[in-house]
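hi!! sorry for the late reply, been swamped w classes. u asked for the two structures so here they r. pasted raw, havent cleaned anything up. first the sequence of the first protein and right below it the C-alpha coordinates
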Amino acid sequence: MKENILDNAYEKYKTLEDLPVKAKVLLPHEGMVRKGIIQFHHGMSEHSGRYGEVMEFFRDHGYICAIHDVRGHGQSMKDDSELGYFGENGADTIIEDAHAVTAYLKNNYPDLPFILVGHSFGSLAARAYIKKYDYELDRAFIVGCPGDNSFKAFGMLLIELMTIFKNSKEVSPFMAKVFNNQFTKPYRKLCKKYDRKELPYGQICTVEEVVNSYNSDRKSGFLYTLNGYYTIMEMMSKVYNGSVDKWIRKNTNLKITFLSGADDVYMISEKKFMQAVERMKKIGYKNVDYKLYPEMYHEIFNEKDKLTVYNDMLEMIEK
Protein backbone atom coordinates (compact mmCIF):
# COMPACT_ATOMS: atom_id res chain seq x y z
CA MET A 1 0.00 0.00 0.00
CA LYS A 2 1.36 3.43 -0.92
CA GLU A 3 2.43 5.65 1.94
CA ASN A 4 0.30 8.56 0.76
CA ILE A 5 -2.97 6.64 0.48
CA LEU A 6 -4.56 8.65 3.28
CA ASP A 7 -3.10 12.09 2.58
CA ASN A 8 -6.67 13.24 1.98
CA ALA A 9 -8.17 11.37 4.94
CA TYR A 10 -9.77 14.43 6.47
CA GLU A 11 -11.49 15.30 3.23
CA LYS A 12 -12.51 11.76 2.37
CA TYR A 13 -13.99 10.26 5.55
CA LYS A 14 -17.03 12.29 6.58
CA THR A 15 -19.67 9.56 7.14
CA LEU A 16 -19.58 5.98 8.39
CA GLU A 17 -20.55 4.85 4.90
CA ASP A 18 -17.33 6.41 3.53
CA LEU A 19 -15.17 4.08 5.60
CA PRO A 20 -13.56 0.98 4.06
CA VAL A 21 -14.72 -1.08 7.07
CA LYS A 22 -17.93 -1.31 9.10
CA ALA A 23 -17.79 0.80 12.24
CA LYS A 24 -20.08 1.80 15.07
CA VAL A 25 -20.03 4.84 17.35
CA LEU A 26 -21.58 5.32 20.80
CA LEU A 27 -22.28 8.91 21.86
CA PRO A 28 -22.64 10.11 25.46
CA HIS A 29 -26.19 10.75 26.61
CA GLU A 30 -27.81 14.03 25.65
CA GLY A 31 -26.67 16.87 27.87
CA MET A 32 -23.45 15.17 28.98
CA VAL A 33 -20.14 16.96 28.48
CA ARG A 34 -18.10 15.14 25.86
CA LYS A 35 -14.70 14.53 27.45
CA GLY A 36 -12.88 12.74 24.64
CA ILE A 37 -12.88 10.04 21.98
CA ILE A 38 -11.88 6.41 22.51
CA GLN A 39 -11.19 4.27 19.46
CA PHE A 40 -11.10 0.53 20.15
CA HIS A 41 -9.34 -2.09 18.02
CA HIS A 42 -10.50 -5.69 18.53
CA GLY A 43 -8.39 -8.83 18.52
CA MET A 44 -7.91 -11.97 16.48
CA SER A 45 -10.86 -14.18 15.48
CA GLU A 46 -13.48 -11.98 17.10
CA HIS A 47 -15.50 -8.85 16.27
CA SER A 48 -16.70 -5.45 17.46
CA GLY A 49 -19.86 -6.85 19.04
CA ARG A 50 -17.82 -8.26 21.92
CA TYR A 51 -16.87 -4.75 23.14
CA GLY A 52 -20.34 -3.42 23.95
CA GLU A 53 -19.96 -3.43 27.73
CA VAL A 54 -16.62 -1.64 27.96
CA MET A 55 -17.72 0.91 25.37
CA GLU A 56 -20.98 1.58 27.23
CA PHE A 57 -19.01 2.14 30.44
CA PHE A 58 -16.90 4.87 28.87
CA ARG A 59 -19.88 6.27 26.96
CA ASP A 60 -21.68 6.66 30.29
CA HIS A 61 -18.69 8.62 31.60
CA GLY A 62 -18.77 11.13 28.76
CA TYR A 63 -16.59 9.55 26.06
CA ILE A 64 -17.44 9.06 22.41
CA CYS A 65 -16.57 5.42 21.75
CA ALA A 66 -15.94 3.83 18.36
CA ILE A 67 -14.90 0.44 17.04
CA HIS A 68 -14.70 -1.13 13.61
CA ASP A 69 -14.69 -4.70 12.41
CA VAL A 70 -11.30 -5.50 10.94
CA ARG A 71 -11.43 -6.87 7.38
CA GLY A 72 -12.24 -10.57 7.41
CA HIS A 73 -14.13 -10.15 10.70
CA GLY A 74 -17.65 -9.31 11.84
CA GLN A 75 -19.52 -7.17 9.33
CA SER A 76 -16.45 -6.09 7.34
CA MET A 77 -16.80 -8.86 4.79
CA LYS A 78 -19.21 -9.90 2.06
CA ASP A 79 -19.81 -13.37 3.45
CA ASP A 80 -18.25 -16.07 5.64
CA SER A 81 -15.89 -17.09 2.84
CA GLU A 82 -13.85 -13.99 3.78
CA LEU A 83 -13.45 -14.96 7.45
CA GLY A 84 -9.82 -14.59 8.46
CA TYR A 85 -8.70 -12.99 5.19
CA PHE A 86 -7.24 -9.48 5.48
CA GLY A 87 -6.67 -8.82 1.79
CA GLU A 88 -3.42 -8.09 0.01
CA ASN A 89 -0.90 -6.08 2.03
CA GLY A 90 -2.92 -7.08 5.08
CA ALA A 91 -0.78 -5.49 7.78
CA ASP A 92 -0.56 -2.12 6.03
CA THR A 93 -4.28 -2.21 5.22
CA ILE A 94 -5.18 -2.79 8.87
CA ILE A 95 -3.21 0.30 9.90
CA GLU A 96 -4.77 2.46 7.20
CA ASP A 97 -8.28 1.24 8.00
CA ALA A 98 -7.77 2.23 11.65
CA HIS A 99 -6.50 5.63 10.58
CA ALA A 100 -9.54 6.08 8.34
CA VAL A 101 -11.74 5.60 11.42
CA THR A 102 -9.64 8.17 13.27
CA ALA A 103 -10.13 10.63 10.40
CA TYR A 104 -13.88 10.08 10.47
CA LEU A 105 -14.01 10.66 14.23
CA LYS A 106 -11.89 13.80 14.11
CA ASN A 107 -13.89 15.14 11.18
CA ASN A 108 -17.15 14.76 13.08
CA TYR A 109 -16.05 15.37 16.67
CA PRO A 110 -13.09 17.79 16.49
CA ASP A 111 -10.95 19.22 19.27
CA LEU A 112 -11.38 16.38 21.75
CA PRO A 113 -8.60 14.31 23.37
CA PHE A 114 -8.10 11.11 21.36
CA ILE A 115 -7.41 7.72 22.95
CA LEU A 116 -6.57 4.46 21.17
CA VAL A 117 -7.24 1.11 22.86
CA GLY A 118 -5.99 -2.07 21.18
CA HIS A 119 -6.66 -5.54 22.55
CA SER A 120 -4.62 -8.67 21.73
CA PHE A 121 -3.92 -8.66 17.99
CA GLY A 122 -5.41 -5.18 18.20
CA SER A 123 -2.59 -4.25 20.58
CA LEU A 124 -0.14 -5.11 17.79
CA ALA A 125 -2.24 -3.04 15.40
CA ALA A 126 -2.29 -0.16 17.91
CA ARG A 127 1.50 -0.13 18.17
CA ALA A 128 1.89 -0.36 14.39
CA TYR A 129 -0.53 2.59 14.22
CA ILE A 130 1.59 4.52 16.73
CA LYS A 131 4.64 3.72 14.63
CA LYS A 132 3.16 5.76 11.79
CA TYR A 133 0.53 8.03 13.33
CA ASP A 134 1.53 8.75 16.94
CA TYR A 135 0.76 12.46 16.39
CA GLU A 136 -2.94 11.62 16.10
CA LEU A 137 -3.14 10.39 19.71
CA ASP A 138 -3.24 11.84 23.20
CA ARG A 139 -3.30 8.48 25.00
CA ALA A 140 -2.91 4.79 24.18
CA PHE A 141 -3.67 1.53 25.98
CA ILE A 142 -1.99 -1.70 24.87
CA VAL A 143 -4.21 -4.45 26.28
CA GLY A 144 -3.56 -8.20 26.31
CA CYS A 145 -0.21 -7.71 24.61
CA PRO A 146 1.04 -10.86 22.81
CA GLY A 147 4.69 -11.57 23.55
CA ASP A 148 7.19 -11.48 20.72
CA ASN A 149 7.24 -14.88 19.03
CA SER A 150 10.57 -16.14 17.72
CA PHE A 151 8.62 -18.40 15.32
CA LYS A 152 7.29 -15.47 13.28
CA ALA A 153 10.11 -15.19 10.71
CA PHE A 154 10.07 -18.93 10.02
CA GLY A 155 6.27 -18.91 10.00
CA MET A 156 6.15 -16.18 7.36
CA LEU A 157 8.65 -18.08 5.21
CA LEU A 158 6.67 -21.30 5.65
CA ILE A 159 3.45 -19.61 4.52
CA GLU A 160 5.20 -18.06 1.52
CA LEU A 161 6.26 -21.57 0.50
CA MET A 162 2.77 -22.98 1.14
CA THR A 163 1.16 -20.33 -1.07
CA ILE A 164 3.18 -21.61 -4.01
CA PHE A 165 0.83 -24.60 -3.94
CA LYS A 166 -2.19 -23.20 -2.10
CA ASN A 167 -4.41 -20.11 -2.39
CA SER A 168 -3.68 -17.51 0.30
CA LYS A 169 -7.45 -17.38 0.97
CA GLU A 170 -7.45 -21.04 1.95
CA VAL A 171 -8.15 -21.81 5.60
CA SER A 172 -5.19 -23.55 7.18
CA PRO A 173 -5.85 -26.02 10.02
CA PHE A 174 -2.13 -26.83 9.93
CA MET A 175 -1.07 -23.24 10.65
CA ALA A 176 -3.81 -22.96 13.27
CA LYS A 177 -2.37 -25.99 15.04
CA VAL A 178 1.18 -24.62 14.82
CA PHE A 179 -0.01 -21.24 16.06
CA ASN A 180 -2.20 -22.47 18.93
CA ASN A 181 -0.23 -25.46 20.21
CA GLN A 182 2.28 -23.21 21.96
CA PHE A 183 -0.48 -22.03 24.33
CA THR A 184 -1.99 -25.44 25.15
CA LYS A 185 0.52 -26.51 27.79
CA PRO A 186 0.53 -23.18 29.69
CA TYR A 187 -3.28 -23.19 29.72
CA ARG A 188 -3.38 -26.72 31.11
CA LYS A 189 -1.02 -25.64 33.87
CA LEU A 190 -3.42 -22.83 34.78
CA CYS A 191 -6.35 -25.25 34.90
CA LYS A 192 -4.40 -27.45 37.28
CA LYS A 193 -3.23 -24.48 39.36
CA TYR A 194 -6.75 -23.12 39.89
CA ASP A 195 -8.57 -26.47 39.70
CA ARG A 196 -10.62 -25.40 36.67
CA LYS A 197 -11.91 -27.63 33.91
CA GLU A 198 -10.38 -27.30 30.47
CA LEU A 199 -12.55 -25.66 27.81
CA PRO A 200 -11.94 -24.96 24.13
CA TYR A 201 -10.42 -21.45 24.07
CA GLY A 202 -10.67 -21.46 27.87
CA GLN A 203 -7.44 -19.48 27.97
CA ILE A 204 -9.24 -16.30 26.91
CA CYS A 205 -11.09 -15.73 30.19
CA THR A 206 -11.70 -17.25 33.63
CA VAL A 207 -15.45 -16.63 33.27
CA GLU A 208 -17.00 -19.77 31.82
CA GLU A 209 -20.00 -17.92 30.36
CA VAL A 210 -17.68 -15.69 28.33
CA VAL A 211 -15.81 -18.72 26.96
CA ASN A 212 -19.04 -20.53 26.10
CA SER A 213 -20.40 -17.45 24.34
CA TYR A 214 -17.17 -17.14 22.35
CA ASN A 215 -17.30 -20.82 21.36
CA SER A 216 -20.94 -20.61 20.25
CA ASP A 217 -20.36 -17.49 18.15
CA ARG A 218 -19.67 -18.47 14.53
CA LYS A 219 -17.77 -15.19 14.05
CA SER A 220 -15.40 -15.87 16.94
CA GLY A 221 -12.72 -18.50 17.31
CA PHE A 222 -12.65 -19.28 13.60
CA LEU A 223 -9.54 -20.50 11.78
CA TYR A 224 -7.60 -17.96 9.74
CA THR A 225 -6.57 -18.22 6.13
CA LEU A 226 -2.91 -18.48 5.17
CA ASN A 227 -3.11 -14.75 4.48
CA GLY A 228 -4.48 -14.24 8.00
CA TYR A 229 -1.68 -16.05 9.80
CA TYR A 230 0.90 -14.32 7.62
CA THR A 231 -0.60 -10.94 8.46
CA ILE A 232 -0.45 -11.61 12.20
CA MET A 233 3.24 -12.47 12.03
CA GLU A 234 3.93 -9.56 9.70
CA MET A 235 2.26 -7.18 12.16
CA MET A 236 4.30 -8.68 14.99
CA SER A 237 7.46 -8.05 12.95
CA LYS A 238 6.44 -4.43 12.38
CA VAL A 239 6.16 -3.94 16.13
CA TYR A 240 9.03 -6.00 17.51
CA ASN A 241 11.66 -5.88 14.77
CA GLY A 242 13.50 -3.33 12.70
CA SER A 243 15.25 -0.07 13.41
CA VAL A 244 13.70 2.41 15.79
CA ASP A 245 14.31 4.98 13.05
CA LYS A 246 11.33 3.52 11.19
CA TRP A 247 9.04 4.86 13.93
CA ILE A 248 7.78 8.37 13.19
CA ARG A 249 8.25 9.57 16.81
CA LYS A 250 6.53 12.93 16.35
CA ASN A 251 4.79 12.55 19.72
CA THR A 252 7.29 10.94 22.05
CA ASN A 253 5.44 12.37 25.06
CA LEU A 254 2.46 10.14 24.21
CA LYS A 255 1.30 8.34 27.35
CA ILE A 256 1.23 4.58 26.67
CA THR A 257 -0.03 2.06 29.21
CA PHE A 258 0.26 -1.73 28.88
CA LEU A 259 -2.50 -3.68 30.67
CA SER A 260 -2.59 -7.45 30.93
CA GLY A 261 -3.85 -10.35 32.98
CA ALA A 262 -0.98 -11.82 34.96
CA ASP A 263 -2.11 -15.29 33.82
CA ASP A 264 -2.45 -14.40 30.13
CA VAL A 265 -0.86 -17.28 28.20
CA TYR A 266 -0.57 -15.11 25.07
CA MET A 267 1.84 -12.91 26.98
CA ILE A 268 4.11 -16.01 26.86
CA SER A 269 5.88 -14.88 30.04
CA GLU A 270 6.19 -11.83 32.26
CA LYS A 271 9.71 -11.42 30.90
CA LYS A 272 8.32 -11.19 27.35
CA PHE A 273 5.71 -8.73 28.57
CA MET A 274 8.35 -6.49 30.11
CA GLN A 275 10.41 -6.69 26.93
CA ALA A 276 7.41 -5.30 25.04
CA VAL A 277 7.10 -2.45 27.54
CA GLU A 278 10.82 -1.70 27.41
CA ARG A 279 10.87 -1.74 23.62
CA MET A 280 8.47 1.21 23.50
CA LYS A 281 10.77 3.07 25.86
CA LYS A 282 13.83 2.24 23.75
CA ILE A 283 12.04 3.50 20.65
CA GLY A 284 11.84 6.86 22.39
CA TYR A 285 8.45 7.10 24.12
CA LYS A 286 9.02 8.81 27.45
CA ASN A 287 5.76 8.01 29.25
CA VAL A 288 5.30 4.24 29.18
CA ASP A 289 3.94 2.27 32.12
CA TYR A 290 2.09 -0.97 32.79
CA LYS A 291 -0.18 -2.89 35.12
CA LEU A 292 -0.71 -6.62 35.53
CA TYR A 293 -3.95 -7.96 37.03
CA PRO A 294 -3.52 -11.06 39.23
CA GLU A 295 -5.51 -14.19 38.31
CA MET A 296 -6.87 -12.66 35.11
CA TYR A 297 -6.44 -14.31 31.72
CA HIS A 298 -6.34 -12.70 28.27
CA GLU A 299 -9.62 -10.79 28.02
CA ILE A 300 -9.40 -8.47 30.99
CA PHE A 301 -12.39 -6.49 29.64
CA ASN A 302 -14.53 -9.60 30.20
CA GLU A 303 -13.11 -10.90 33.46
CA LYS A 304 -15.07 -11.23 36.70
CA ASP A 305 -13.39 -8.10 38.08
CA LYS A 306 -13.58 -6.16 34.81
CA LEU A 307 -14.98 -3.03 36.49
CA THR A 308 -11.66 -2.64 38.28
CA VAL A 309 -9.96 -2.53 34.87
CA TYR A 310 -12.50 -0.05 33.49
CA ASN A 311 -12.18 2.25 36.50
CA ASP A 312 -8.39 2.04 36.46
CA MET A 313 -8.39 3.14 32.83
CA LEU A 314 -10.85 5.95 33.54
CA GLU A 315 -8.67 7.20 36.38
CA MET A 316 -5.57 7.03 34.20
CA ILE A 317 -7.29 9.00 31.43
CA GLU A 318 -8.71 11.69 33.69
CA LYS A 319 -5.93 12.33 36.19
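now the second protein. again sequence first, C-alpha coordinates right under
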Amino acid sequence: MIDNLLSFLTYENIYYIANIGVIPCWLLLIVSPNHTMTKFFVKSVIIPALLSTAYIFIVYQIYLTENILEIFNLYISLDEVYTLFSNEGFLLVFWLHFLSINLFVGNWIASDAKTYSVSKFLVILSLIATYFAGPVGLVFYWLVRILYSKKINYYD
Protein backbone atom coordinates (compact mmCIF):
# COMPACT_ATOMS: atom_id res chain seq x y z
CA MET A 1 0.00 0.00 0.00
CA ILE A 2 2.77 2.47 0.98
CA ASP A 3 4.78 1.47 -2.09
CA ASN A 4 1.78 2.20 -4.32
CA LEU A 5 1.35 5.61 -2.71
CA LEU A 6 5.04 6.43 -3.04
CA SER A 7 5.07 5.39 -6.69
CA PHE A 8 2.02 7.62 -7.28
CA LEU A 9 3.65 10.64 -5.59
CA THR A 10 5.90 11.63 -8.45
CA TYR A 11 6.94 15.25 -8.82
CA GLU A 12 4.66 15.57 -11.83
CA ASN A 13 1.63 14.21 -9.93
CA ILE A 14 2.29 16.43 -6.92
CA TYR A 15 2.57 19.44 -9.24
CA TYR A 16 -0.70 18.55 -10.96
CA ILE A 17 -2.59 17.89 -7.70
CA ALA A 18 -1.33 21.09 -6.07
CA ASN A 19 -2.21 23.24 -9.09
CA ILE A 20 -5.67 21.75 -9.47
CA GLY A 21 -6.17 21.69 -5.70
CA VAL A 22 -5.76 25.44 -5.17
CA ILE A 23 -8.14 26.45 -7.95
CA PRO A 24 -11.31 25.67 -5.93
CA CYS A 25 -9.84 27.69 -3.06
CA TRP A 26 -9.35 30.71 -5.29
CA LEU A 27 -12.82 30.30 -6.75
CA LEU A 28 -14.29 30.18 -3.25
CA LEU A 29 -12.38 33.35 -2.31
CA ILE A 30 -13.67 35.10 -5.43
CA VAL A 31 -17.27 33.89 -5.43
CA SER A 32 -18.07 33.46 -1.76
CA PRO A 33 -15.32 34.68 0.60
CA ASN A 34 -17.52 34.56 3.71
CA HIS A 35 -19.21 31.21 3.13
CA THR A 36 -18.76 28.44 5.70
CA MET A 37 -17.09 26.19 3.13
CA THR A 38 -14.58 28.94 2.29
CA LYS A 39 -13.83 29.44 5.97
CA PHE A 40 -13.40 25.70 6.49
CA PHE A 41 -11.13 24.98 3.51
CA VAL A 42 -9.40 28.24 2.64
CA LYS A 43 -9.25 30.22 5.87
CA SER A 44 -8.26 27.28 8.05
CA VAL A 45 -5.02 25.35 8.27
CA ILE A 46 -6.23 22.54 5.95
CA ILE A 47 -4.80 23.73 2.62
CA PRO A 48 -1.53 25.09 4.08
CA ALA A 49 -1.09 21.79 5.92
CA LEU A 50 -1.57 19.80 2.71
CA LEU A 51 0.80 22.02 0.76
CA SER A 52 3.40 21.91 3.53
CA THR A 53 3.12 18.13 3.68
CA ALA A 54 3.92 17.96 -0.02
CA TYR A 55 6.73 20.46 0.53
CA ILE A 56 8.25 18.38 3.34
CA PHE A 57 7.88 15.17 1.29
CA ILE A 58 9.73 16.71 -1.65
CA VAL A 59 12.49 18.15 0.55
CA TYR A 60 12.89 14.67 2.06
CA GLN A 61 13.11 13.15 -1.43
CA ILE A 62 15.74 15.72 -2.36
CA TYR A 63 17.61 14.89 0.85
CA LEU A 64 17.62 11.21 -0.14
CA THR A 65 18.81 11.77 -3.70
CA GLU A 66 20.62 15.13 -3.89
CA ASN A 67 22.70 17.49 -1.83
CA ILE A 68 20.06 19.46 0.08
CA LEU A 69 22.57 22.17 0.93
CA GLU A 70 22.54 23.27 -2.73
CA ILE A 71 19.49 25.32 -1.84
CA PHE A 72 21.75 27.92 -0.23
CA ASN A 73 23.47 28.48 -3.59
CA LEU A 74 20.56 30.61 -4.70
CA TYR A 75 21.98 33.48 -2.69
CA ILE A 76 25.25 33.42 -4.65
CA SER A 77 24.19 34.47 -8.14
CA LEU A 78 21.38 34.37 -10.67
CA ASP A 79 23.23 31.59 -12.51
CA GLU A 80 23.05 29.48 -9.35
CA VAL A 81 19.29 30.08 -9.15
CA TYR A 82 19.01 28.95 -12.76
CA THR A 83 21.06 25.84 -11.99
CA LEU A 84 18.99 25.11 -8.88
CA PHE A 85 15.72 25.47 -10.79
CA SER A 86 16.93 23.00 -13.41
CA ASN A 87 16.45 20.38 -10.68
CA GLU A 88 12.81 19.22 -10.76
CA GLY A 89 12.60 18.74 -6.99
CA PHE A 90 13.90 22.18 -6.09
CA LEU A 91 11.68 23.79 -8.72
CA LEU A 92 8.61 22.04 -7.30
CA VAL A 93 9.48 23.12 -3.76
CA PHE A 94 9.57 26.73 -4.88
CA TRP A 95 6.35 26.33 -6.87
CA LEU A 96 4.58 25.00 -3.76
CA HIS A 97 6.02 27.94 -1.85
CA PHE A 98 4.57 30.29 -4.48
CA LEU A 99 1.14 28.64 -4.36
CA SER A 100 1.04 28.73 -0.56
CA ILE A 101 2.09 32.35 -0.15
CA ASN A 102 -0.20 33.58 -2.92
CA LEU A 103 -3.16 31.76 -1.39
CA PHE A 104 -2.32 33.25 2.00
CA VAL A 105 -2.17 36.74 0.48
CA GLY A 106 -5.45 36.14 -1.38
CA ASN A 107 -7.05 35.07 1.86
CA TRP A 108 -5.80 38.21 3.57
CA ILE A 109 -7.11 40.39 0.73
CA ALA A 110 -10.57 38.81 0.95
CA SER A 111 -10.67 39.28 4.75
CA ASP A 112 -9.30 42.81 4.68
CA ALA A 113 -11.67 43.85 1.89
CA LYS A 114 -14.58 42.92 4.12
CA THR A 115 -13.25 45.21 6.86
CA TYR A 116 -13.05 48.20 4.51
CA SER A 117 -16.15 47.33 2.39
CA VAL A 118 -14.10 47.33 -0.81
CA SER A 119 -16.01 46.90 -4.06
CA LYS A 120 -16.47 43.22 -4.93
CA PHE A 121 -15.32 43.91 -8.50
CA LEU A 122 -12.02 45.45 -7.33
CA VAL A 123 -11.47 42.60 -4.86
CA ILE A 124 -11.99 40.08 -7.67
CA LEU A 125 -9.46 41.92 -9.85
CA SER A 126 -7.01 41.95 -6.93
CA LEU A 127 -7.49 38.25 -6.28
CA ILE A 128 -7.03 37.32 -9.94
CA ALA A 129 -3.88 39.45 -10.13
CA THR A 130 -2.60 37.85 -6.92
CA TYR A 131 -3.28 34.34 -8.25
CA PHE A 132 -1.24 34.98 -11.38
CA ALA A 133 1.35 37.51 -10.19
CA GLY A 134 1.37 37.58 -6.36
CA PRO A 135 2.98 40.89 -5.44
CA VAL A 136 1.30 42.77 -8.32
CA GLY A 137 -2.13 41.79 -6.99
CA LEU A 138 -1.14 42.73 -3.46
CA VAL A 139 0.06 46.21 -4.52
CA PHE A 140 -3.06 46.69 -6.65
CA TYR A 141 -5.22 45.82 -3.66
CA TRP A 142 -3.18 48.11 -1.40
CA LEU A 143 -3.81 51.02 -3.79
CA VAL A 144 -7.53 50.20 -3.90
CA ARG A 145 -7.60 49.93 -0.13
CA ILE A 146 -6.14 53.43 0.22
CA LEU A 147 -9.12 54.76 -1.74
CA TYR A 148 -11.61 52.93 0.47
CA SER A 149 -9.96 53.54 3.83
CA LYS A 150 -9.04 57.15 2.97
CA LYS A 151 -5.64 56.76 4.64
CA ILE A 152 -2.25 55.33 3.90
CA ASN A 153 -0.85 52.68 6.24
CA TYR A 154 2.64 51.32 5.71
CA TYR A 155 1.93 48.57 8.18
CA ASP A 156 -1.11 46.74 9.50
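hope this helps!! also noticed smth abt the second:
The first helix runs from residue 2 to 8.
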